[in-house]
Amino acid sequence: MTVEAERNAVASGIGQQLLRRLRARADVLGAPGYLSDDHLPDRPTVRQLRDATAAVESARGSGAAELSRLLLAIDRDGDPELLAETGQLLLRASPRLWLMLDVVTRGTWWQAPRWSADAVQLLVQGETSPLGLTVASFHPDGHVREAAVVRLAELDDMLALAALTLRASDWVPQVRDRARSALQGHLAEPVGATLTAVAPVALALRERREGRWLADRIETVFREGPVEILTAALAAPDWRTRRAAHRAALAADRLDLAQMLHAAERDGDLPTRIRCAEAAVRAAVRAGTVGRVRPLLSSGTAAVRAEAVDVLARTGDIGPASDALADRNPTARAVAQAALRRVGSDPVEQYRRLAKEPRPKPGAIAGLGETGTADDARTISPWLKHPEPRGRMEAVRAMRRLGAADPSVLSGMLTDPSGAVTRQVTIALHPLACRLDLQGLRELLTASNPHHIRIAAYRLLHERDTWTRLLINLELVADPMSSMRDRARNDIATWLTREAAATYSMPQGRTADALSRQLRDAEDVLDRDRIRLLRFHLGLKAS
Questions:
Q1: Which end of the chain has fewer CB atoms at under 10 Å, N or C?
Q2: How far apart are alpha carbons 231 and 233 in whole angstroms?
Q3: 105 and 17 in contact (C-beta within 8 Å)?
Q4: For 114, how many CA atoms within 13 A lie in the half-sphere containing its CB?
Q5: Does the predicted TM-score (pTM) go above 0.70?
Q6: What is the pLDDT of residues 98-129, one digit of tens each?
Q7: How many angstroms separate the CA atoms of 93 and 166, rounded?
C-alpha cells in the first residue's frame, strides 16, 4: 500500500487504527502461498444475474448463494454496464433478498480468498465501486465491514443507503455506530426518496437485537416529519413501509377521513386496510358523517365490510345489514345477524326465504345453517346439488351444523369434483367413519382417482379403527404419488412413536393375516427396524 493511499484513507475517515488493521490483513492475505483459488463464476451475464435474483425473490427463496457469487464476480470484473444493471436490480429488490444476501455473502467471501485480498486493497485506496462497497459491507471481517461503511457514508447513492441500513444493526458496535452516524445525517433532513429506500430494510430488521434503533427513528419521521415524506411513505411499494406509515399517521392524527377510506378500500396490506377502516368509522362517527363509510360495504376485505355494516346499523341504517346476511364471509354474516337482532328482527326468517330462492347464494345457505334448527335441513338438502362448488360446500357444512349429516347421502359426495366440497364432506362424516362402506372407501383410495378424492377416503379410513389405519398406511408406502407415500410413512412413524405402546389389543384372524402380508410386501420400502417394531407391537412373527 502506497504512502499516498494511506494518507487518502486516513483523510477519508477510516482512521489510523483501522488502517493498520486492514494493512495487516492485506499483508497476510496478500502472500500467495496462503491463498487458494477463487470459486466464482468466470464471466457472469445479465441473464444469469436476473435469473438468480428471480430465484431468491420466488416463494422458494433458493439461489441466494449463487446470487452472492455472481455479485462478487461482477464486482471483480468491473464491467460498467453489468455494475449498473446490478445496482438497479438491488435497488428494486425486496428486504427479504437483502437480508438473505447479508447472511449468505459472509460465507461466499471465504470462497474467494484472492479477490477478498484484492478487494481490501481497493477498499483502502478508495477505488471500489458502490456495488463493491455493498458486498464489502457483507464481509465476515468486522474491520472490512467498518471500512466499507466509512466509504459508503461518503456516497450520495441509494444503494449505499440500503447497505448502511443493514449495518446499522450490525453485531459489532464499531460498525453499527459508524453506520448509524451516517444515517443520522440523512434522517435529520429527510427526503421522500431517501426514506423509501431505507425504510423497507430497516423495518424488516426491527426484530433483530439491534434493529429497533433505525425503525423507531423512521416511524418518528412519519409521525412528526414533513407531510411530503409521509405522503410518499403512504404510497410506497413496500408493504412494511405503508403499514408503519399508516400506523404512525393514525396515532398522530395526520390522516383525514378521505385518506383513511382510500387505504381501507385500496391498500394491498390486510392489517392496514382493517386498521384504516376502524379509524375511518370512528372519525365518521365523531364528524357525524357516517354515510361516507358506505363505499366500504363493497370492500373485498370481510373485516372492512363488517365495520361498515355495524356502524351503519348502529346509526339506524339497517338495510346494509339485511344485504350482508348472505355475505360470503362468516364474520360479516355474524355482524349482520347481530345488527338485526338488536332491532328485534330474527335473521333466520330472512335466511329461510333466501334459501328458497331458485338459486340461493352460498352465504344464504351458510347463514341458515348458522341460525336455523334441525327442521331447516329439509330446506338445505336440495342444495347439496347446488351448481356452484361453494354452494354445495356450504350446504354440507350447514347439514352438519344442524345435526342432519346423513352418511348415506353425504358419502356419495366424496367423488365431488371440488376439493373444497370433499373436505367438508370428510369433516361431516368423520364421527361416522365406522358406519361407512369399507369397500367403497377402498375403491376411492385407488391411484386412478383424483388426489382430493383419495385424501378424503384416506382420512375416513384412518379414523375407522387402528388396524384399518395401519393396513391402509402399509398399502400406501409404495404408492406412485409422493404425497400419499409421505402421508402413510409419516403416520406409521407417528403411531409407533406416540400410540403403539398404549394399544393394548392385538389384531386377530384375517386382519392379522392381512397385516402380516402387507408388512412382508413393505420390507423393500420401509427400513428393517421399523418393520421389526411394527411386528413387535402387532404381535406378529416374521414369516
A1: C
A2: 5
A3: no
A4: 10
A5: yes
A6: 999 999 999 999 999 889 888 888 888 888 89
A7: 14
